[in-house]
From TrEMBL:
Regions crossing the membrane: none
Stored InterPro entries: LapB (IPR030865), Rubredoxin_2 (IPR041166), TPR-like_helical_dom_sf (IPR011990)
Keywords: Cell inner membrane, Cell membrane, Iron, Membrane, Metal-binding, Repeat, TPR repeat, Transmembrane, Transmembrane helix
Cytoplasmic-side positions: 23-399
Residues where Fe cation binds: C367, C370, C381, C384
Entry similarity comment: Belongs to the LapB family.
Keyword Metal-binding included in the entry's annotation: yes
Function of the protein: Modulates cellular lipopolysaccharide (LPS) levels by regulating LpxC, which is involved in lipid A biosynthesis. May act by modulating the proteolytic activity of FtsH towards LpxC. May also coordinate assembly of proteins involved in LPS synthesis at the plasma membrane.
Membrane topology recorded in Swiss-Prot or TrEMBL: Single-pass membrane protein
Domain LapB rubredoxin metal binding span(s) in chain numbering: 365-389
Recorded name of the encoding gene: lapB
Protein name (record): Lipopolysaccharide assembly protein B
Length: 399
């Protein structure tokens, strides 16, 4: 990364020199004087920035030696952005603040500098300052409106101000799509659906049930595959004792994304039990397992069969599925079911211990975007910050 940053700075230096040379030639000045006219302090400041030494002095030298105008604006912004990416938010801020102190820039160019400075403030943790700059651009109807709104969405997300994040995100989606309620899936629509769920959870704590239900519907409007909305709705139905309604909502998750049915299959089995319909759950689980063998679903199916048909039928069911697609969790359950038929209990104990160790070592969830893995389901990936990308691990060492 450091080598890449050095390359970019060197490329910038060459580009600036070329631009200055071109500018001088347009004024009918010979090529040699044009190159010589570039201040020595400009090269010295670039050298300091490249070496990452005396950054404050280097920034001051750069600001003093390199004129700000329409031709050099992009270079100033790019160099400030590079400093921000290197972690020097102070240097980036000074370069971008210097642009706003100039009176020879057009409104659009000033707005470019506002965007860059807002990003500096945001990275430095000065979210209020960043928000004020971006709000001003939104109110003015700047041509950089969408860029400002995207940055605001990120700030509101950081501040956990979910309603403002929803409102800003909604403005980035064409009105005709909002009216049709058939939004194409995108990172933004998925994120907004999770903002709705986050806000719904807050309203649940305050027992604002109407607002909660409206937000859960909105989540599905933004992303019909938002399993989180159905999970919350199912949980609320169970708490209210509406088990049939919970079954209807939770079973929809199998159509949205079958992997997440693992997260609610215990609740589904409970709802069928409370509805005196264990046979209904067996039919649902068998239908699901014909499409994909998921260990959590299989474990609940085995328990249901045991309660209705006995231990032998339950063991035979588990053995059949483990032959088709073995998993560590399923094998552990199978070992336990055969325990009563084996004389050498110590060997079974050792086998179970080794299998448990393998399961404990493996992650249960993984982000499909960046590969982050862990034991807990995160709706927003802790690593890449993407929403809805973390899913249960499937395979012999997972579900």
């Amino acid at each position: 990364m450091q080598d890449f940053a050095t390359f970019i700075l060197l490329l910038s230096a060459v580009s600036i020199g070329w631009l200055l040379g071109r500018y001088r030639r347009s004024k009918k000045v010979s090529l040699l004087p044009a190159v010589n006219a570039i201040p020595t302090s400009y090269y010295q400041s670039l050298n300091l920035l490249i070496s990452n030494d005396d950054s404050n002095d280097a920034v001051e030298s750069f600001i003093e030696s390199f004129e700000v105008n329409s031709s050099t604006l992009a270079t100033h912004i790019s160099l400030g952005n590079l400093l921000r990416e290197r972690g020097d938010t102070e240097g980036a801020t000074r370069i971008h603040q210097n642009l706003l102190a100039r009176t020879n820039l057009s409104i659009a160019e000033q707005h470019q500098a506002h965007i860059a400075l807002a990003k500096d403030y945001a990275q430095a943790g000065l979210l209020d300052r960043a928000e004020s700059l971006l709000d001003a651009l939104v109110e003015e109807g700047s041509e950089y409106l969408n860029t400002a709104l995207k940055e605001l969405v990120g700030i509101y997300q950081e501040q956990r101000d979910w309603q403002l994040a929803i409102d800003a995100g909604r403005r980035l989606i064409p009105k005709r799509l909002l009216r049709s309620k058939r939004l194409p899936s995108s990172a933004l629509s998925v994120a907004i659906s999770h903002y709705c769920c986050e806000l719904a959870e807050q309203h649940i704590l305050a027992e604002n049930w109407r607002e909660t239900r409206a937000l859960l519907r909105q989540a599905l409007d933004f992303d019909p595959k938002c399993v989180r909305s159905n999970m919350i709705s199912g949980r609320l139905s169970i708490e209210a004792g509406h088990y049939r309604q919970a079954i209807k909502v939770l079973e929809q998750i199998a159509e949205q994304d079958p992997l997440y049915i693992n997260e609610v299959v215990d609740s589904l089995a409970y709802c069928y039990q409370q509805s005196n319909d264990i046979s209904g759950f067996i039919r649902f689980a068998e239908r699901l397992l014909r499409q994909q063998v998921l260990t959590s679903v299989l474990m609940q199916l085995v328990l249901a069969i045991r309660s209705q048909q006995g231990e032998d039928q339950a063991r035979e069911c588990l053995l059949t599925y483990m032959k088709r697609r073995p998993t560590l969790l399923g094998i552990i359950a199978l070992v336990e079911m055969y325990r009563g038929q084996v004389n050498d209990q110590s060997s079974l104990d050792l086998l179970t211990e080794m299998l448990d160790a393998l399961v404990a070592r493996n992650p249960l969830y993984r982000c499909g975007d960046c590969g982050f893995a862990g034991k807990q389901l995160h709706w927003q990936c802790p690593s890449c910050k993407a929403w809805g990308g973390v899913a249960p691990v499937i395979g012999i060492d997972g579900q």
